[in-house]
Amino acid sequence: MMSVKIISKENIKPSSPTPHHLKLYKLSILDQLIPAPYAPIILYYPNQDHASDHEVQERLNVLKDSLSNTLTRFYPFAGTIKDDLSIDCNDVGAYFAVARVNTRLDEFLKYPDLELINHFLPCEPSFSGSSEGSCVSNVQVTIFECGGIAISLCISHKISDGGALSTFLKSWAGTSYGSKEVVYPNLSAPSLFPVNDLWLKDSTMVMWRSLFKMGKCRTARIVFDSSKLAALKADVVANGIKDPTRVEVVSALLWKCVMDATEEKSGSRKPSLLSHVVNLRKRSLSTLSENTIGNLIWLASAECKTSSKTQLCDLVEKVRGSVSKINSEFMKKLQGEKRTKVMEESLKSLKDCKDNNNYLGFTSMCKMGFYEADFGWGKPIWACGGGVCHGSPVFMNFVVLMDTKYGDGIEAWVNMDEHEMHAIKHNPELLEFASIDPSPLQMI
């Protein structure tokens, strides 16, 4: 049986102290939208050059030194949670754990046990998440018997979305590798989206708790390779949809499968609500660069009523239509004097969702470059977000979309009710285009 044992713990402090005038980092109003679990990523690196135990230990030292230098640039990430409005940039540093596991990396990757993946994380994902006084950044490096390693990073969702996590990882990996191009963060979000009180946090917490549900949750990896995605897109194009994206067609198909599973369980078709996390960095014409740190995201929503058409092309249109509303004009309103009203109206359909059995949430971590993170010994063989469900309500009704190794497929981590998951995994339309829990080694 696989066993992960922690062999050391420490805090990695920034290489230079944070100036006094930067000791308090205020969060933006958009940071209030998201619950406060940690945003996790796990990257798996094979021991391609047959490094010795001594060389693996040297790699650990390089990781620590480069992390220290990176934290100086990303100084809020070296602090602790002060309260719901701010980060204490006190240079406590990042929690850094080293662990060993009693198996080889290739053996683990043959058929990864999704129930055990959280043991590679430095902290347990949960709805309550990061609390006051806890470290913003947490790292665990797990060493396999073969010398391969898993590098996991959990940053508080109070300050980091997937885009910010990716930026930090690029900067850390580049520093470790010795890249001449140093990645610096853009820390302007709090000034662009200031917050004066906690009205949005209080409002959205009620919304989230009504959408996520209790129950026996199951997690499945549903993988769409490039050829099957091309066929799925072609099917949608043949029905009149122009240039569908990977994310649109996968989201629509999984939404359709969930509605079919719910109908099978209840005996009747019910209204269904979908939400999709939208990266605002790509929707803004202003100063939101790719390296802007914070939760630069918004929720788009689409509804499928009992009378609505549920052909795949119809659902693709609904997904596209909902996301297209989060545009540059919406961004201007979000930064204007009436942003409170704009936010409330935009979230109204989610807040009005009464039957959480018919809600499905998506977030996409595609095109974020996780497979490009080279610390000096090659790129990862597999990347996953962790957060495998253990009956916690936070991950029910939720789908995380990841790139496959070469960026042309999609790996969907689907967390659903036990009965509905069984129906989804046996849906003939889904199985025509996807594989259920394939080995990551098959996707190389």
Descriptors for this entry?
single chain; 444 residues; alpha+beta; Chloramphenicol Acetyltransferase; 2 domains; seven-stranded mixed sheet; six-stranded mixed sheet; HXXXD-type acyl-transferase family protein; transferase; CAT-like_dom_sf; acyltransferase activity
3D architecture notes:
By secondary structure, the chain is of the alpha+beta class. The chain has two domains: 4-192, Chloramphenicol acetyltransferase-like domain (Chloramphenicol Acetyltransferase); 199-367 and 388-443, Chloramphenicol Acetyltransferase. 31% of the residues lie in helices and 22% in strands. The chain is built from 13 helices and 16 strands. A seven-stranded mixed beta sheet has the order 11-10-12-14-15-9-16. A six-stranded mixed beta sheet has the order 1-6-7-8-3-13, with helices on one face. A hairpin with a 6-residue loop joins strand 14 and strand 15. Helix 1 (53-73) crosses helix 3. The chain starts with a strand and ends in an 8-residue tail after the last strand. The model has no long low-confidence stretch (mean pLDDT 90). Keywords: Acyltransferase, Transferase. Belongs to the plant acyltransferase family. This is HXXXD-type acyl-transferase family protein. InterPro entries: CAT-like_dom_sf (IPR023213). Pfam families: Transferase.
Topology:
Layout: E1 4-12, E2 24-26, E3 38-45, H1 53-73, E4 80-83, E5 86-88, E6 94-101, H2 105-110, E7 137-143, E8 149-156, H3 162-177, H4 189-192, H5 199-211, E9 217-224, H6 226-237, H7 246-266, E10 272-279, E11 297-304, H8 312-324, H9 328-334, H10 339-346, H11 348-351, E12 359-364, E13 382-384, E14 398-403, E15 410-417, H12 418-425, H13 428-431, E16 435-436
Helix pairs in contact: 1-3, 7-8, 7-12
Protein name: HXXXD-type acyl-transferase family protein
Family: Belongs to the plant acyltransferase family.
Keywords: Acyltransferase, Transferase
